[in-house]
Amino acid sequence: MSAERETRIILISPASNITPDQLVRTIHTMGKNVTVKESCYGCVLEGKQDIVRGIINELRELDPNGIFTKVRAFHAGDPRRCRAHHGTRPGFAQLEQEWGDLWKIQRGLERADNGEKASKREIQEKLSVEKFKKICEVRQ
Amino acid sequence: MKVFIDPPNSLILFDLVERSGHEPLSTMAEIQEKIEKVELDMPPMNVSVEDVMKGLKYAGIEVPSGVRGRLAIWGPMIEAAEAAIIMEDCPYSFGCVGCHRTTLMVRYLLKKKNIPVLYVDYPNDEDQAKDLVVMMREFLEGLK
Questions:
Q1: ipTM strictly over 0.90?
Q2: How crowded is residue B49: how many other Cβ atoms within 10 Å of its Cβ?
Q3: Of B28, B92, B128, which is closest to A97 when you measure between CB atoms?
Q4: Which residues of chain A are within 8 Å of residue B28 when distances are taken between CB atoms?
Q5: Cβ contact (<8 Å) for A112 and B130?
Q6: Domain spans in chain B, listed from the N-terminal domain onward
Q7: B25: which strand partners?
Q8: Nearest CA of chain B to the CA of A74: how many Å?
Q9: What does pTM read for this prediction?
Q10: What DSSP string describes A30-93?
C-alpha cells in the first residue's frame, strides 16, 4: 500500500445514530487536505496515509463500535468504478451483505466490551467408516 | 503482525484486525498497486504476464486460470503472513465469487506455512457475532 495515497471506505452500522451527512461534515470541519465523497453507506475518504488514519481515529470517537472501515483499491470517483460514470461495481454484493450485518458486529463488540466470553464452537465430527458404509449400502 | 484474512476483501475481518493493532493483508492493497503501477482496468480479472507466472508457483498448469489468477495475488500475501483468520460459510461466497478450488488451495498453503490460523463462522445472529469478536480478540492479543 502506498503511503502517498490511501483511499478508505467508511461504513456506518445500520444500528448507529450517525448519518453519512454528519460523517462528511465532521471530516470537512477538521480542515484536512483530503477528498471526501458522501455515499449511501457512509463515505469515501482519500488522502495521504497518515492524515487518513488520523481522521479515522477521530471519527471512531463519534461511535466507537458503529463505524467501520476498509481500504479501497480504486481512487474516490474513479471512472472505472464511479456510478456517475456508469462504472461497474464487482464485489458490491459482498459489501452490501457485510454492511447489512454490521449491526450484529456492533452488538458483538459491545458485548465483548462488557466482558462476555465466547460460547463453545461445535466441531463437526468426522464420519465413521461404519456409518459411511451404511449410507453407501443399497437397501434391498 | 501481518494477518492474512479470508475472504481477503472482507470488511468485517479487515476492520476487526485493524482495531486490534495488527496489519490485515487484503486484496484491496494488492489491487491498488496493480491499478497504479501496471494500470490494469479490472484486476484480478485482467492479469499481466507476470501474474500468470506468479500463479504457476502456487498451482499447476492444469489448474483453471481463474484459480491461478487469484493465487497470483493471494499467494504472495500468504507468504508474507504471520497469522491468518478464516471466516467460514460466508453467504456471498458462492459461484465464481466464492471459487471453492481457490479456497481449498489457500487453506492448503496456510497449513503448509505452519502459522497460527483461526477459523470463525460468518455471524448469522448476534450471539455468533459476539463469538466472532471475542475469539478474534483473544487470538490477536495472543499474537503480540
A1: no
A2: 7
A3: B92
A4: 70-73
A5: yes
A6: 2-143
A7: B4
A8: 6
A9: 0.88
A10: HT-S-EEEE-SSEEEEEE-HHHHHHHHHHHHTTSTTTEEEEEESSPTT-TTT-GGGT---TTHH
| Contact indicator for A54, A76 with CB cutoff of 8 Å | no
Q: In what order do the strands lie in the sheet with B2-6?
A: B23-25, B2-6, B83-88, B117-121
Whether the CB of B104 is below 8 Å from some CB of chain A: the reply is no
B32 shares contact with chain A (CB less than 8 Å): yes
- Distance, CA of B69 to CA of B94 (rounded, Å): 18
**Is CATH 1.20.140 correct for B2-143?**
no
CATH of the domain spanning A6-113:
3.30.70
pLDDT tens by residue, B23-33: 999 888 888 88
Q: Do A70 and B132 touch (CB under 8 A)?
A: no
| Mean pLDDT confidence for B1-7 | 92
